[in-house]
Amino acid sequence: MNSSVFFDISAGAYIAAMIIYIIYLVVRNRNVGIAASGITIFGFVSQTTALIIRWVNSYHFWVSSNPDSGFVESILRGAPLRNLYESLIFFVWSLILFHLFVEFKYKNRSIGAFVTPLAALALLFIDVSGSTKEIQPLIPALQSNWLLFHVLLSFLGYAAFGVSFGAAAAYIVMVTESRKELPYIFWSITIGIFLVVLVAMGIDFLSISTAQRAEFIQNHFLKTTLRNPSPAVAGVSWIAAVILIFLFWKFGLGLRKVLSGMNMTPAILDEITYKSIAVGFPLFTIGGLIMGAIWANSAWGKYWTWDPKETWSLITWFVYALYLHARFVSGWRGKRVAILSVVGFVAVIFTYLGVNLVLSGLHAYGSG
Amino acid sequence: MEENEKEKTDLFESIWKFLASVKLAIAVLIILALSSIIGTIVEQKAEPARNIALLAKFFGDTAAPTVYNIFAKLGFMDMYGSWWFTTFLAVFSINLIVCSIDRLPKTWRVVKSPQKPLSDSAIKSMPLRKELTFKTALSEARDAFIKALGSLRYTAQEAPEQDTVRLYTQKGKYARLAVYVVHLSIILIFIGAIIGTRFGFRGYLNLPEGRASTVAFKSPTEPIELGFTVKCNWYNTLYYEGGDTPREFQSELVILDSNGKEVMKKVIEVNDPLTYQGITFFQSSYGMMSEAQGYFVLDITPSGGSEKRVWLRYGDSFDIPGTAIRGKIHDFSPALTRDRKTGRLTTYSDKMVNPAVAIEFSQQGKDPYIGWILNRYPETGFLPGGHKVSFADYWGVEYTGLQVSKDPGVWLIYLASIIMAVGLYVCFFISHRKIWINISSDRKSVRVSMGGSTNRNRINFERELDRIASEATKAIEGRSKK
Ligand code: HEM
C-alpha cells in the first residue's frame, strides 16, 4: 500500500483547517470552530495512517536488504525519520498532536489559527524543497538507535516549542496597546517574515517543475522571488516582502479584538507558553543535545565538535534556558518573556533549516 | 584596621553577590548565544582563503583580507577555543557554582523545615482553598479526609485539638532540589570536557589490509604511541542491492599485546567501534592504495564437491578439483559496468564499488573462454557443469580509515547527561505540594477548610484538591445514608 495518498489528504486537511481556524477567529461561530477541530483530527488520523504505512514499508525495505537483522532492530531501522522529508512530516505530526492536546486541555480553539500555519509552512516547504519522498536506503552513519531517538525526541521538543511560539505570538498581540511598542514590532516583523517566506515558497512551488524539484534545496530555495538571479525580479520581490511585512505590522493589531472576543486571556496564553517550554526543554535537552552527542560520539568518536548544527542547537538551548531563568528566577513577566519564546522558536527553525540552507549556502558559494 | 576589614568583607560580599546573581547569568547566556553565532558563519579552523572569500561577500574584495586579519586576531577563526570564549564559559560556570552555593542552604532549610498546622485564617489567605460543610461527626470527617489524602499518596499528619482536627501533609519536597542537580550536571559536563581535552587525544590511522601499527597520528608529523598493536585483517564495503548506495563499511581489527599475542578481535562498523585500553577505533573512511598488488580470494566449489578457498596473484592459475578445468586470473576491475550506449564492459570508478575478476577458463580440447565474476553478484560465478567459483575479495589493496580517539572524560559526560535528564524531569514534572485541612465541628455540622500551595503545575494541583474533596464527600455521604 502507498502512504502518499494519506499524506496528501492530511496536507490538504491541515491547510483547510488553517483557513477555517482563521475564519473561526473572525466569525467566532462555534460550529466553525468544531469544523476546524474536526478537520484537524481527520488530517491527523490520516497522517498517522500514512506514517504507519510508511513505517511498515520501510521496515520491509530494510529487511529485504538486511535479512539477518533482528525484529526489533528492523523496526527501529525502518522508522520513517531518515531524511528531511520524513523528519518534516514527523514534525508536522507532533505539532498537530501537541496542538490537539492543548486544544482539549484548555478548551480553547483559537491557538489553532497560530499553529496550523506552521504546519502548512512545513508542508509547503517539503514540497518546494524537493526532498525525496522515496524510501531511501539507510547509509551506515544513520544506522543508529541513538540517532533515531535523537530525531524523535528533538522533533517532539520542536513541536512543543512550536506551540509555545503560537501562544506567545497570541499573547503579544493581546497585550499590545500601540503599534509602536517594540515587542509588537518585533513580533509582527517575525510573523511577517514567516508569511513572506510562505508566499515566496508558494511561488517557488508553482513555478518549479517537478524535475527541478528533485535537485538540491539550496539551488532553488526562494530562487523565483527573493533570490532571483535577475535584479529586477529580486528587487520587486524584496519591495513586496517589505510591504507585506508593513501591512502585517499595520493591521496585526486587529487580531487582538478577535482574540479578546474569545475566552482567551493573556494569563492562559502565558501559561500555555510556559507549559509547552517546560515540556519542550527536557525533551530537547535529552533528545536534541544529549542523544545527538552520544550518537556523534559513537559514529565519529567525538561528542561535540562545534559544527554549525550543534552550535545552533546549543544557541536554541541557551535561549530557552534564558526564558526559564528570566521568568522564574528574575521575575520577568509578560511581553519580555513572550519575546524570548518567539526568539527561541526562530532559533529552532534556524537550527533545523537555516543551517542547511543559509550557512552551507554561504560556504558553498564561497568555494565557488 | 577595623574599617579596613569591614571594607574588605563588603567588597568580598559584593563580588560574591555579583557572581551569584541571575542577572549575570542572563547576561552571560545572551553573550554566549550571540557570540556562538559568529563561529557558525565563519568557517572554523579552515584555510584562510575560504574565509576571505566568504568575507568578500560582505565587505568587498579589497577590504576582505584586512577584515580577515582583524577577525583572526579576535580569535574568530578558531572561536570556541579562543581565550575570550573560554573566559565566558569560565564565568558561566563560576556563576553557576557560586549561585548554587549561595542558594542551596536556603532551599535546604525550606525542604528540611517541618510543615506546621495552620490556623483557619491562614488557610483563608492561601491561593488555593475550599470550604465544605457536612452533617456528620468530626471523627468520620477526619477519617474520610485521611483516607482521601491517602488514596493520592499523601500521608496525613495530625494536630488534634478541642473540637478541631488539623490535618497537614506535603509531597515532593525534594523536587525543590532538582534544579541544583541540573546545575551540577552542567558543571560535571564542563569537568568531563576538560578531562577529555587534557588527557585524551584525537587522531587517525589509515591501515592497509593485513598491516599493523603501534601508533596513530594527530597530524602527519605527530604520531602517538598506542601502547599496543592494532592490525587490520580486512576492510569491506557492503552495498544495497541493485545500486551503489553503501550499506555498511566494515573492518576486522585485531589487537595484539606487546608479546604479539592476540587479545581482541572485532569487526567494526560505523556506529559500532572497538575500544581497547581506553582507546577507541572508529570506522571513518576507506580507500585504495595505488600500485598495491593484492590477492584474489576465490571460493571454488566443484559440482557435488565441497568449497575450497584459494589465494592467487595476478596471472596465477588454479584447478577446479576433480575436473580438468583450469582457471587463470586474467584481469581485474574495481568497478565493472556495462556501458549503456556501447554495450561494452568498462570500469566506472577507481574505488572498489563493484569489483570483478576476469578468469580465463581452459580445458583440454576446448576453446578457452574468459568470464567476469563479480563480487556483489555471486550468480556470475556459476559455471557450466554445475561448478561454482565465487570472488570473495581482492585482498590487500584497500586500507581502512580509522578515527582513533581516547577520551577519559566521556564517562563523566554520560553520567552527567543521565543526571541532567533525571534532574530536568523531576524539576519540571514533580512539584512540591502542601495541603492543610482544618476540620472543626459545631453542634450539628462539621466545617472543613482546605488550603494548598504548590511551586508549579497549579492546575493539576487544583484538580488534585478537587478530587480529595469529592472523595471525602462521597465517603461521608455514603456512610450517612447507611
Ligand atoms: C544553560 C545552563 C542552565 C540550565 C540548563 C539551567 C537550568 C535550570 C532549570 C531547568 C531551572 C528551573 C527553572 C524553573 O523552575 O522553571 C533553573 C533554575 C535556576 N537557575 Fe539555572 N540553569 C542554567 C544556568 C544557570 C546559571 C548560570 C545560573 C547562575 C546564576 C542559574 C541559576 C538558577 C537559579 C537561581 C534558579 C532558581 C532555583 C530555585 O528555584 O531555587 N542557572 N535552572
Please tell me the total number of domains of chain B.
4
Largest sheet of chain A: none
> Whole-number radius of gyration of chain B?
38 Å
Strand content range of chain A: under 5%
Number of strands of chain B: 22
Structural class of chain B: alpha+beta
The helicity of chain A comes to over 70%
The CATH first-level class of the largest domain in chain B comes to: Mainly Beta
* Spans where pLDDT lies below 50 across 5 or more residues of chain B: none
Give the N-to-C terminal Cα separation of chain A.
44 Å
The backbone outline of chain B, from C-alpha atoms, is elongated
The biggest chain-chain interface is:
A-B, 50 and 55 residues
β-strand amount of chain B: 25-35%
- SS field, number of helical segments of chain B: 10
Low-pLDDT stretches of chain A: 363-368
CATH architecture designation of the largest domain in chain B: Sandwich
Report mean pLDDT of chain B, rounded to a whole number.
88
Structural class of the helix and strand makeup of chain A? mainly alpha
Q: What oligomeric state do these chains adopt? A: heterodimer
The CATH topology of the largest domain in chain B, please? Tick-borne Encephalitis virus Glycoprotein, domain 1
How does the major sheet of chain B shape up? 5 strands, antiparallel
